[in-house]
Amino acid sequence: MRTKTVRCTVNGVPVEKTVDVRASLADMLRDDYALTSVKIGCQVGECGACNVLIDGECYNSCIYLAVWAEGKSIVTVEGLKGKDGLLHPIQQAFVEEAAVQCGFCTPGLIMTALSLLNSGKKYTRQELRYEISGHLCRCTGYENILTALEKAINRRDNGE
Amino acid sequence: MFDFEVLYEARSVSNAIELLCQHPKAKIIAGGSDLLIKIREGKETGLELVSIFTLDELRGVSIKEDGTLCILPLTSFSNVIKSPVIQENFGVLAQALSQAGGPQIRNIATIGGNICNGVTSADSASTLLAWDARLELTGPSGVRLLHIEDFYLGAGKVDLKPAEILTAILIKKESYSGYFGHFIKYSMRRAMDIATIGCSVNVKLSEDKKAISDARIAFGVTGPVPRRAPTAEAAARGKAVSLETVEEFAAAAQADINPRTSWRATREFRTHIAKEMAKWALIESIKLAGGELQ
Ligand code: FES
Ligand code: FES
To answer: N or C: where does chain B have the smaller number of CB atoms within 10 Å of the terminal CB?
Structure first.
């Protein structure tokens, strides 16, 4: 088997494409669906730049075969855009707290942040460190990212 | 794009075995968090792969009728950690797996893959060994059961016969019921790092909690394969719950191991730290079991 037609849902839309079986999910999302928020950094599962949600859980798409996406629901940062064009609350918190510098790590972190928001749980700052330990950021020193996460989670809990 | 030759996707366990029989050189890919990285790094090229990743029949954790704890091999680290059955009966496994990789890696890495890689530093290895886990292996000629200790043959080598796959990880009721354990991983970083050394200890105390009915200990990275420390276990079994027993246990554990020097740490460092780890893991295990140490 060298190619395969992969049917899945990408950012809420049912889609299908025939892909090379050697493609990673990151390759498919970027090359076949032009979803370039999915960054390719290390390509070996270390940096989290390629992180996306698959059926609601975080995966590094650089080490996930595209053919495994069959029947799954995938969400990338492009899928967060609201109907009114506004930023998602987690993106807004990242902007407000200057949690973005070069921005290369940001889409991956936003997807982890989204899974934390969706969990409905509360996290201490220490727990948040543990939860983002699969992401490398060369710029921010992480403090502003943690502050943005806390802000978004607080807003969720206050119903803002 | 990954540099492999061809991918066969198994539709069931029996289909996976058929595919492996038809393609004797093929390698099994589960979550791929080890194999895909080796391919990416060029350490493996031109492979034929049989993917078992989508076989949901190999996912889940349960307790069988006879009380045996059964972990299916494709269960992700995250799902083992979250499993109520594991948290209630085998908390130390969750504790060990939570220290592996990072969140995304724990979502994709499978416990079966962690065993079948045959790596001594595997975060599941010392704990499964220390709890007398047995492996169910299914191949063309049927099913066999093997003690996990016998499965590890050498560095990166496991006793997986041609076209055989791991289909369950089993722990008998008498091996887990009443036992409490603690795992310590020593590594340079707290996340996304491989253990310099790993140590898993568990105990079962007498009814009055004054004596150690049984103690078990296993190390990872103190040799080419994860190993139990039998002299240490004997040194604690039947002894009073006391700091003296703990010291004797730790000293015996140190004598049981034979680590090597690698770029991560020297033999001397590993030997030194192993004793401390055995000591603290036993102290924690005794506390979890309700014992008191003066
Ligand atoms: S590019 Fe996928 S984890 Fe770094
Ligand atoms: S903002 Fe540059 S890597 Fe994180």
So the answer is: C
Please choose, from the candidates B159, B110, B156, B108, the residue with its C-alpha nearest in 3D space to the C-alpha of residue B136.
Answer: B159
Ligand 1, closest atom to CA A41?
Answer: 1
Which residue lies with its CA nearest to atom 3 of ligand 1? A45
Probe site for chain B from A19, A21, A30 (most B CB atoms < 10 A) = A21
The CA distance from B49 to B7, in Å, is 5
10-residue block means of pLDDT along chain B (294 residues)? Answer: 96 98 97 96 96 98 98 98 97 94 96 92 91 97 97 93 97 97 86 83 96 95 88 96 96 90 85 93 96 88
**Nearest C-alpha neighbor of B236 from the set B224, B255, B253:** B253
Q: Which atom number of ligand 1 is nearest to the Cα of residue A42?
A: 4
Q: Determine the residue type at B32.
A: G
Kindly state whether B105 is in contact with chain A, defined as any CB-CB distance less than 8 angstroms: yes
Query: Using an 8 Å Cβ cutoff, are A110 and A54 in contact?
Result: no
> Is A111 in contact with A53 (CB distance < 8 Å)?
yes
pTM for the whole structure: 0.95
> Which domains occur in chain A, in start order?
3-79 (3.10.20.30), 83-157 (1.10.150.120)
Residue A47, min C-alpha distance to chain B (Å): 10
**CA B81 to CA B74: how far, in whole Å?**
13
Is the shortest distance between the CB of A58 and ligand 1 below 6 Å? Answer: no
User: Do the strands B165-171 and B69-71 form a parallel or antiparallel pair, or are they unpaired?
Assistant: antiparallel
A102 lines ligand 2 (CB under 6 A): yes
Task: Return the residue whose CA atom lies nearest to atom 2 of ligand 2.
Answer: A102
Domains of chain B: 4-51 (3.30.43.10), 57-174 (3.30.465.10), 196-288 (3.30.390.50)
